[in-house]
Amino acid sequence: MIGYVTLGTNDLQGNAGFYDAIAKEMGVGRMMDFDTHIAWGQWDGGAGIALTRPYDGQAASVGNGTMVAIEAKDPDQVKRLHEIALANGGTDEGAPGPRGEPDGEGRTFYAAYFRDRDGNKLNAFCMVKG
Q1: How much is the pTM?
Q2: Matching CATH number, 4-129, of 3.10.180.10, 3.90.220.20, 3.90.550.50, 3.40.50.720
Q3: Which of 7, 50, 121, 129 has a CA between 20 and 30 Å from the CA of residue 67?
Q4: pLDDT tens-digit series, residues 25-65
Q5: Helix, strand, coil share (%) of the chain residues, nearest 5
Q6: How far apart are CA 94 and CA 112, in angstroms?
């Protein structure tokens, strides 16, 4: 089970507003706030997201093929998260919409993709019936 995901950043304070807005839509806030890292989520809740300056002092870089997925409650929240990301300095990597074919239970993967200001890739998703 994943407790949290940490992403590297070269501009902690500059990216903080991006994640503050995403966290607010998800109904959580900052649970840790230090000079070198910030974490969003809820103690004893689901998985959280943290941003940190790399411990080794080197520049943060984006992992090719690495992505953080945020589980939304419905397609409307997927759309809102995508809009919030773009309004807070993020870039579009795929507009909200269904992806792929329905699974064996008739559910379809509904998702939107975006990057934060450092280029880290995120996805907001939910499963929709029908």
Answers
A1: 0.87
A2: 3.10.180.10
A3: 129
A4: 999 999 999 999 999 999 888 899 999 999 899 999 888 78
A5: 20, 40, 40
A6: 6
